[in-house]
Amino acid sequence: MPTKNNSVTGQNMHPSTEPVNDHHYFTHPAQRAKISMVATPIGNLSDITERAIHALEKCDELWCEDTRHTQNLLNALNISRQGDHHRLKRFDQHTAEKDLLQMLEKVEMEGRWIAVVTDAGVPGISDPGAKIIENIYQYPGIKIEPIPGASAVSSMVSVAGFTDNSFRFLGFFPRERKDALQLLSTLDESGTIFFESPKRILETVETLKVWSETLDIAPKFCFAKELTKVHETIYSGMGTKFIEFFLGQDFDERGEWVFSVELPKDYLKNKKVVTEWELTMECLIEAEIPTKKAAQLVSTKFNIAKNLAYQKALDLQKK
Q1: pLDDT per residue as tens digits for the range 21-61
Q2: Virtual torsion, Cα 78, 79, 83, 89, nearest 10 deg
Q3: Interhelix angle for 306-318 vs 276-286, to 10°?
Q4: Positive or negative torsion for Cα 226, 230, 233, 234
Q5: Is 69 domain-assigned?
Q6: Which residue segment(s) compose the domain that 216 sits in?
Q7: Secondary structure in 3-state letters for 105-171
Q8: pTM of the model
Q9: Are 39 and 109 in the same domain?
Q10: Which of 14, 173, 210, 258 could form a Cys-Cys staple with 194, CB 3.0–4.6 A?
Q11: What CATH number is attached to the domain comprising 51?
């Protein structure tokens, strides 16, 4: 934590792991140190910007999620960084917070220029770069600078066809089906974007199918594979029928996936409230638990009448 001396030159700063609650950060010309959050291509090298190239070439040190991956990018751009002063430094999810604070303290005290990159896209979005942002505002002598560029999120927004003026990004889709269904039950009319790995995309689509079958309306889905790359593929459609069509396609699930979900306008006005016990029952039936046993489990856990729970189980079994 900075001392009460809020010197913008970074003198006499002694950070600690304690959060800062009374410090107000702002950027200004007197800051000697700088950290640039540099967007890099998500698949197409032509998407690199001139500002990004300049930062990668001229910064004092390059912090990256994977030094080998970043070195390949530098080689492709014909950028040579030699000598200890221009080395690549690994910064990933395993970097301890105390080490990060020491790194930031050194940057501030020495007035250095650091460029931060992730493996692809904009650092700070579902990657370790977010840890830097969480802590950097403790250091008034460091200027934070975004260098925008290719982003899977903004690329998805451009092709998803959202009808509402707002959207939200929720990172990677939940692994557990119960957690996923719970999250999906909270969606509103705003478009929602998720990341998904190739190993889980088919399971995720099956979960979306289960959810879609419980609705009286047809959500809009858009799935994008390998955005900006040679094998870029985009699928879009409405409701359960589209999901069945999508699952029936002969496609290679390998590659990075982004997908979006959007519910129709006025959905919330007509939304049927699904209680926690009903959601649990849906998960049990989907897991092929016998109706009688599922009803007994739900009745016991949520203190629901056995006949009500059993009828719900029967209704779900018929779908």
Answers
A1: 556 888 888 889 999 999 999 999 999 999 999 999 999 99
A2: -120
A3: 50
A4: positive
A5: yes
A6: 163-172+189-265
A7: HHHHHHCCEEEEECCCECCCCCCCHHHHHHHHCCCCCEEEEEECCCCHHHHHHHHHCCCCCCEEEEE
A8: 0.73
A9: yes
A10: 173
A11: 3.40.1010.10
| Cα–Cα distance, 88 to 210 (Å, whole number) | 46
Please state the φ and ψ torsions of residue 147, each to the nearest 5 degrees. -120, 95
Neighbours of 28 (CB within 10 A): 8
How many separate domains does the chain show?
3
Apex CA 257: angle with CA 256 and CA 262, to 5°? 165
DSSP collapsed to 3 states, 46-86? HHCCHHHHHHHHHCCEEEECCHHHHHHHHHHCCCCCCCHHH
What CATH number corresponds to the domain at position 223?
3.30.950.10
User: CB of 149 within 8 A of CB of 52?
Assistant: yes
DSSP secondary structure letter of residue 173: P
Type of residue numbered 67: T
Pair 307, 257 in one domain = no
pLDDT digits (tens, 9 = 90+) for 124-181: 887 778 888 888 888 999 999 999 999 999 999 999 999 888 899 999 999 999 899 9
Is 6 within the bounds of a domain?
Answer: no
Contact 40, 52 (CB under 8 A): yes
Strand partners, 144: 35
Q: What is the mean pLDDT of residues 197-207?
A: 95
Cβ-based neighbours of 264, under 8 Å, separated by 6 or more: 189, 217, 218, 219, 220
Rounded-to-integer distance, Cα 182 and Cα 276, Å: 8
Statement to judge: residues 118 and 212 lie in one domain: no
Are residues 167 and 123 located together in one domain of the fold?
Answer: no
Question: Which H/E stretch holds residue 269?
Answer: helix 267-270
Residues 280 and 254 in one domain: no
Total Cβ atoms within 10 A of residue 27 = 13
